[in-house]
Fold this sequence. Notes:
Chains A, B, C, D, E: It is found in: Carboxysome. The structure is a homopentamer. Chain A is globular, with a radius of gyration of 13 Å. The first copy, chain A, is built from 2 helices and 6 strands. A 5-stranded mixed β-barrel of chain A has the order 1-3-4-6-5. Chain A has a single domain (2-12, 20-88), classed as CATH 2.40.50.220. Chain A is mainly beta. Chains in contact: A-B, A-D, B-C, C-E, D-E. Chains A and B meet through β1, β2, β3, β4 and α1 of A and β5, α1 and β6 of B.
Amino acid sequence: MIAGKVVGSLVSTRKSEKLIGNKFMIVEPLRHMQADTRQIIAIDNIGAGIGEYVIVAQGSAARIGCDMEEAPVDAAIVGIIDDGGILEKDDAGME
Amino acid sequence: MIAGKVVGSLVSTRKSEKLIGNKFMIVEPLRHMQADTRQIIAIDNIGAGIGEYVIVAQGSAARIGCDMEEAPVDAAIVGIIDDGGILEKDDAGME
Amino acid sequence: MIAGKVVGSLVSTRKSEKLIGNKFMIVEPLRHMQADTRQIIAIDNIGAGIGEYVIVAQGSAARIGCDMEEAPVDAAIVGIIDDGGILEKDDAGME
Amino acid sequence: MIAGKVVGSLVSTRKSEKLIGNKFMIVEPLRHMQADTRQIIAIDNIGAGIGEYVIVAQGSAARIGCDMEEAPVDAAIVGIIDDGGILEKDDAGME
Amino acid sequence: MIAGKVVGSLVSTRKSEKLIGNKFMIVEPLRHMQADTRQIIAIDNIGAGIGEYVIVAQGSAARIGCDMEEAPVDAAIVGIIDDGGILEKDDAGME
């Protein structure tokens, strides 16, 4: 998984029927996290708000682990990090 | 998922039988989105036109979530972004 | 999927039994396509020749979409691009 | 798989129900290992401590291979490397 | 798949039960192959020796194609390349 910050959301009116009712959040991975710090669009089932630090699961884990087995989803917010702000300051990891 | 712009399409006459009837769209991820801004070839089930901003799902999500479980497809356009042009201007995400 | 050019092939005498009878083609992704322009080794079920421009599917799509569900294959040529040479000249996509 | 060093852990109180009881470890891949040396968040089923060198499996292997088939997990620590410190010194691999 | 050279092996005494009996080989992808030339840890079912040039399958192909469906494995050596040394000299592919 990667850790990132929710920086926005997307609206898509014309979309796959299986995506109706889902929120598309824009997550920016932390600089020292995998994935080139490029942003990811992730489904949110946890209720993360903009500015919160989250854990994002990618690949089939997003579909299967979030009970959306049949949906075209490859990334999902699966947890909100406690004290996530610390992560951004500390570039080498934290305990 | 990633957000990108449809910049063209591809024609393939000799192809896997399971791909017959599908359109191959060339999608250029937005600069601040994951995937090195390199272009992706994605199947389109939504009816996206060239110049539109779209959401692309990758991996098994493209096959399974688009009811093409048996097709050799690893990327699919799953939504068209409302006001996608704003995304290109705003490099840090948007609400 | 990505678009690339077949630049060669590989011979492997000692290999997984499930790969017997398959051809290993070396595909070089086009410069503006995803995957860092590094070469990929892909199974060919379409009959692509060296120098041809092809569409390559990666991940589980290669196995499942090419009826090789039980084979250790993560990339397959799934289509030959008509007029592929144009792709190499045009860096921004084409219609 | 990749080899890396456990550099910390994350706490997430609000998370997917399927993740309850799991530890999120922050793993930093070794410099000469795949994945851009960016950190990964991996579930730990082996009991790795901070500072230990570990093997991390990614993708569906993490879920299925760790008996968490239904959990939104895309990376898991699957082994602790004996004499892992040697790996960090030797940049070209070791026997 | 990617082509690489076996440069070493890893020992892991504390590991997932499902990995017992497997060898962890360190494979360095060829410079012009996908994956940033960073090293990968791959299971070996073919009997590759250090210094040999091999084909590595990644993702679910490694598990399913190597009859290790339940193991936390995301990369496997699936073939040994005949005359692999030529690959290292020739940067543009070969026939």
